[in-house]
Amino acid sequence: EIYRIKLPGPPTVIGEGRPENQNHAIIFTRGEALQTIDMNQDNYFEEAFKMRNVLEEFLKSTSGQREPTILGLREHIFTGSVSSLAWFISNQETSFVTISQRILVNPLRVRFYYGHPDIFDRIFHITRGGIGKASRVINYGADIYAGMNSTLRGGYITHHEYIQVGKGRDMGMNQLSLSEARVAGVNGEQTFSRDVYRLGHCFDFFRMLSFYFTTVGFYLSSMVIVLTVYVFLYGRLYLVMSGLEREILENPGMHQSMALEEALATQSVFQLGLLLVLPMVMEIGLEKGFCSALCDFIIMQLQLASVFFAFQLGTKVHYFGKTILHGSCKYRATGRGFVVYHAKFSENYRQYSRSHFVKGLELVILLVLYEVYWHSYRSSNKFYLFITLSMWFLVGSWLFAPFVFNPSGFDWQKTVDDWTDWKRWMGNRGGIGTLPYRSWESWWDEEQEHLKFSNIRGRILEIILVFRFFIYQYGIVYHLDIAHRTKNTVVYGLSWLVLVTTLLVLKMVSMGGRRSGAEFQLMFRIKALVFLGFMSVMTVLFVVCGLTISDLFACMLAFLPTG
């Protein structure tokens, strides 16, 4: 033995599964054209007669370009009538495979390979590495890399809508979220890929911008939108806590900017996501008429389509940011099973806890604190009203959308069953071989698994982002009644002393409960002693130090977002 080569995974599965299978099977095909069809797609008898016309497109050259190497086909989403969510995603997908694809081909010239109905020039691609890249993790989203590879090697991609292929999309809330999480992770990995780097250097300036905003730029812009909400709320909270905002509002020069604020307040109405559905409305208007498009748009809003798309925004941002920070995008099976079923509360919690619920709760606390500490000197202001209203809408969507769109979500018996399953899941101990859906501890270990494989840069950035909780904790401590308006640093030090003491007591009780085992009387005595000590300390703080009930609520709001 001279040397060994470490494979990137098991010896039977070196690359990603689907592109490995495609590149392996392409050598067994015949002919000059190759069409890829997925298992969730269907074809129609009348469309088969058009195949000869489509294949003739390989012999045409358009606008001085060379003959096409990939023929893009339109898709017909036939699952839109199953539920309201299926209708939402069907309209969104229809606009993407029609009007968006036309724009990507001409004039932008940045269309790639986005799905399975496309027809490949077999000879061109079999001599240039196949129809997909199969490197582990980085080429997890194998579809688009076929188009990138074709463009980099001198190919040309077109789009044709006189032929269509049926397609069944995911229809349940959890399935759609998993699908969106997978696509967001794929775009996160694309950011680090050499294909995006090479295309960015090869394109001209305008084509490069078109390529950016139609791929990773869309998800990066979505992340910037959510980060703007955080920056705005933390910045305003800092101004309120430090007293700077009160001085700014009391400045006579501020009254001269009322006209600008009213104009911005009017503009904010159109920034609630209404412009994002403009391509959808335009495509429905072109195919069915603008009256039908307007009626469909109104019905979608009445069926809470805005709530659903605001929730999907949180899914995009979480998984895209997670992949950017720590990498390791992984496959998330959607199942594509029967979707009209009631998802249990523990299932929704496992899937949306870190991506939506925790972030939504943090935004709620920021909004409440801003409201509480600003009410003493504020005046009616339309600009702040509209901005806060849109943020409350975003928070409500993140916290309640999984339950609003859950079938039989208001059935009392199912609610009782969900509570029983939740208690069982929270009470089960984890361990080796325990699946995440059976124990909270196993689920938590799986959720934090990405930190084990993250590099030092990702871990440092994660720690820096967590430091944001100290901003309003620092401000709240000095606004407590027990602090008596003092600005001494001893007050902040005492708040940390209280926090550390509380954590130590809880840790001692937990360790005592594990060691006592079946000695229930000893455990009850420990808990009784802790309770009596807590009541004694609280009595002294209320009577001697001047602690108030509002201080208790403020402390809860300060330490609750840390989890």
UniProtKB/TrEMBL annotation:
Name the domain of life.
Eukaryota
Q: Name one GO molecular function term.
A: 1,3-beta-D-glucan synthase activity
Q: What range(s) does the Glycosyl transferase domain occupy? A: 1-546
Please give the start and end residues of each transmembrane region.
Answer: 211-233, 383-405, 460-478, 490-509, 529-560
- BP GO annotations: (1->3)-beta-D-glucan biosynthetic process
Which key words are in the record? Answer: Membrane, Transmembrane, Transmembrane helix
Query: Does the keyword field hold Isomerase?
Result: no
Name any GO cellular component annotation: plasma membrane
Q: Does the keyword Cell membrane apply?
A: no
InterPro entries tied to this protein:
Glyco_trans_48_dom (IPR003440)
Annotated protein name in UniProt: Glycosyl transferase 48 domain-containing protein
What organism is this sequence from?
Citrus sinensis (Sweet orange)
